[in-house]
Amino acid sequence: MKPDIPPSPWDPPSTTPPPPSAGPAWPETGGPAWQQGPAPAWQQGRQAPAPGAVPPLGPVRAESGARYDQQGRNGQGGRFAWLGELTLVLFLVVMGVLAVTVVGAVLAEVLGAAPASADSELIFEDPVAETAVLLVGIAIGTPIVLWGARYLNRRPAGTVSSVVGRLRWKWLGLCAAVAFPLIIVQFGVLLAWTWGEESAEPSGGGWPGWTAFLVSLAVLAVLVPFQAAAEEYVFRGWLVQVIGRAVRSPWPAVVLASLLFALAHGFGELSGFILLFYSALWWGWLVIRTGGLEAVITLHVANNLLAFGLAAGFGELASTETAADAPWQAMVVEFVFAPLYCLVMARIADRRGVQRMSS
Q1: Which string of DSSP letters, residue by residue, matches 286-304?
Q2: Rounded CA separation 79/77 (Å)
């Protein structure tokens, strides 16, 4: 009869199935215990469901203490579920832009408002209508990414807005009170610097008259906030959170989203690309720092309203130029004003106790 010899700590686990009373043979995370490493940081602190428990059917939030970029880490889906969400939502965004373009083209033909030239790349002859189609085509991105967060990531759609699960309207209003005056000063500095230079002279048809100008302002006032907010929801919001499900640091997501944001504006001047990429990095930092999109939405809206408003006044709404075509003077001015706004808003957020982690 063999004596009872205690097992060596270096021996692999016995393959003999345990008795029913011994409990489950495998830990909740899968695999034998001697192969298990520490749980991922975003899973630590989350209580494992009881054996046989039914997973929640409704939206599931990230654990308490999660940063803005970690709001998608709610334990739903497998390791590569984020990749499926990324692919499908980006596809739907592209399809949404194409759908708006097709509908606009059909309306232009039905109303007899299409350009007379068959070679024109425009949809409407009227620059205000053409701009409206462009703005709506971009604004369609917001409902698509919110749908992706809710039904693909199975979390509250409001977590794309902020860590509290909604837009913080009081904080947004305070951000607007800082952003609009600062943007006016920034544009004033740029106009004073470039005044009289040939590259800065208006190339449009000049003052369109009060009626056309006021109609343009009304259309811009309605649509630009949705267009600017959509760019933030897509690039600084949802995209950062989707990538944030696969990486620990927020910076890979912020850098990649900033690069895509700059490329999405087209290829123009190198100074314009640097301006966009540099600004996007600061804005991405501010979103993580304040736990939401409010501060960057207000700055983006202020910038676009003033830019489109000036274009309307100079008769340049039909221009195809974007921020990617910005001159080097605009880049230099942005080097100062982008960090100025972000650092000021981060300081105000600290003093106001703005929540930057989920509770």
Answers
A1: HHHHHTBSHHHHHHHHHHH
A2: 7
**Dist CA 287 CA 142 (whole Å):** 17
Q: Give Cβ neighbours of residue 37 (< 8 Å, ≥ 6 apart).
A: none
Q: Is the C-alpha dihedral spanning 89, 90, 95, 96 positive or negative?
A: positive
Q: 């939030």: which residue's tokens?
A: 61
Is residue 166 helix, strand or coil? coil
Return the DSSP state at 162.
B
CA 56 to chain centre: 27
Q: What are the pLDDT digits (tens) for 303-359? A: 999 999 999 999 888 888 889 999 999 999 999 999 999 999 999 999 999 999 999
In tens, the pLDDT along 27-36 reads 344 444 434 4
- Separation between Cα atoms, residue 148 and residue 88, nearest integer Å: 8
pLDDT digits (tens, 9 = 90+) for 210-238: 999 999 999 999 999 999 999 999 999 99
Mean pLDDT of the chain: 86
Beta-carbon contacts of residue 191 (< 8 Å; ≥ 6 apart): 200
Contact 260, 231 (CB under 8 A): no
Tell me the β-bridge partners of 292.
162
